[in-house]
Design goal:
Arc Repressor Mutant, subunit A; 40% helix; alpha/beta; binds calcium ion; elongated; Rossmann fold; single chain; 4-stranded antiparallel sheet
Length: 226
């Protein structure tokens, strides 16, 4: 049975979605705010997430960003706001599809089916906790430990670390890291990467001068070796 996490603060709509999806044999986990959504997703990873952009405790975009730190789960966004900018922001944050309220239940269920089908292609992904012999990274709660001792990473360091550990063993281009973390227009600032990876290695590697996990591929980019 495929598990769907529904994040919607309007009780009537949450109930309607839950009833309709359960009637189609999905397992449904309904929650009413962003914090509960991130907790539920980390505790038992869903196969698909439906998230309303207007939540009482945080912007739905923050929920997407929190999930995307460690998960490639398909995300469908619900919004009453039919603005192009909102749509672009949600997709940039990592949403896969977008449904504007009010919507017909048949159309919504068809989007769910399509998103699950697209996600059915096997891909490399990590769970919320990444473990190496020296350190562990809990990507959901943003906690790092080195040899059992808590290590504090800055938001930018987390962003870089997450961008790499999502693709263990694979080369990630420096230009891609710069565009993802600092934004378009920063693709040439390779000195940023040198500075930040020096800090990350000092915090996480046993021997920062001989990094084993955050490896530089000269002239190309970086690679995370678990
Ligand atoms: Ca709402």
């Amino acid at each position: 049975m495929q598990r769907l996490l529904i994040v919607e603060d309007e009780p009537a709509l949450r109930r309607a979605l839950t009833i309709n999806l359960r009637a189609r044999s999905y397992e449904v986990v309904p929650v009413g705010d962003g914090a509960a959504a991130l907790r539920a997703a980390a505790t038992s990873p869903p196969d698909l997430v439906v998230v309303d952009l207007g939540l009482p405790d945080m912007d739905g975009i923050e929920v997407i960003a929190g999930l995307r730190g460690w998960s490639t789960v398909p995300i469908i966004v619900l919004s009453a706001r039919d603005s192009q900018a909102e749509k672009v922001r949600a997709l940039d944050a990592g949403a896969d599809d977008y449904v504007t309220k009010p919507f017909g239940m048949d159309e919504f269920v068809a989007r769910v089916r399509a998103a699950l089908r697209r996600a059915d292609i096997p891909q490399l992904s990590t769970g919320p906790v990444v473990t190496t012999p020296e350190f562990t990274l809990d990507l959901a709660s943003k906690r790092a430990q080195r040899e059992g001792v808590e290590v504090k990473l800055t938001p930018t360091e987390w962003h870089l670390v997450e961008a790499l550990v999502r693709h263990p063993g694979m080369l990630v281009a420096g230009t891609q890291l710069l565009a993802e973390v600092w934004g378009p227009g920063f693709e040439k600032e390779t000195n940023y990467l040198r500075v930040y990876f020096a800090q990350i290695r000092r915090k996480l590697e046993a021997d920062p001068s001989q990094p084993r996990h955050f490896v530089t591929e000269p002239g190309l980019g970086y690679r995370f070796e678990p």
